[in-house]
UniProtKB/TrEMBL annotation:
InterPro entries membership: HTH_MarR-typ (IPR000835), MarR/SlyA-like (IPR039422), WH-like_DNA-bd_sf (IPR036388), WH_DNA-bd_sf (IPR036390)
Start and end residues of each HTH marR-type domain: 22-170
Organism: Devosia sediminis
Source taxon at top rank: Bacteria
Protein name per UniProt: Winged helix-turn-helix transcriptional regulator
Pfam families: MarR_2
Gene Ontology terms, MF aspect: DNA-binding transcription factor activity
Lineage, top ranks: Bacteria, Pseudomonadati, Pseudomonadota, Alphaproteobacteria, Hyphomicrobiales
A GO biological process held by the record: response to stress
Length: 202
């Protein structure tokens, strides 16, 4: 029988020892994440920020500037040194592509190469004042829009949501034990796939 609706998926999860209320939440959260992922992949807010602020960069170029400066830091905290390899790692892109993007930002005056204070043999990448201004402006734009939305929430809602969001963001870290726990159910799903493939080839 195909798993074609919520009831059948809920039955599968319940038989695996997952409470019906949790099963319902899993399916609702999955749907929300799918919608969120589609919009995040389009980078709607980032595109809008660059457009509204009149910044002549594409998102890939802006991403380079953002990872050079790193996350928003506490006042007085010294930023880590960044090399081309750091950019590649933070953006999960090929080092050659990272090198090309960094060179573009240097050529356009948003970044500069400098000598590491820790190791004079090492070349690091820093933002120029122009590059820092761009990153600050885009972040401020984003925070204003998000702040306006969250400003409609109560303090109690914010106090509950933020810790839960942080906790939820780590759920994939526990996939190993979960796949072991549900090895039997996963094997059954695999067998169902194999059977469907056999039917198509018959």
């Amino acid at each position: 029988m195909p798993l074609s609706d919520k009831t059948q998926f809920s039955t599968l999860l319940t038989e695996a020892g997952i409470a019906p209320e949790t099963a319902e939440a899993v399916m609702d959260i999955d749907w929300v994440i799918q919608q969120w992922r589609r919009r995040a992949m389009k980078r709607e807010l980032g595109q809008r920020a660059l457009q509204d602020l009149g910044i002549g960069l594409d998102l890939a170029q802006f991403d380079v500037l953002a990872v050079i400066v790193g996350p928003v830091a506490e006042a007085g905290r010294e930023a880590d040194e960044v090399m081309v390899s750091t950019v590649a790692e933070r953006l999960s892109i090929d080092p050659s592509r990272a090198s090309r993007l960094v060179s573009e930002m240097v050529d356009q005056g948003y970044a500069r190469r400098a000598v590491s204070q820790a190791d004079a043999r090492r070349t690091i990448i820093e933002l120029t004042e122009r590059g820092q201004t761009v990153v600050d402006a885009v972040r401020a734009y984003k925070f204003l829009i998000m702040g306006d939305f969250l400003g409609q929430w109560s303090q109690a809602e914010l106090d509950a949501f933020i810790p839960m969001l942080k906790r939820f963001s780590t759920w994939i870290d526990g996939i190993g034990p979960s796949t072991e726990k549900h090895a039997e159910e996963i094997a059954a799903l695999s067998a169902r796939l194999a059977s469907a493939k056999s039917d198509e080839l018959a």
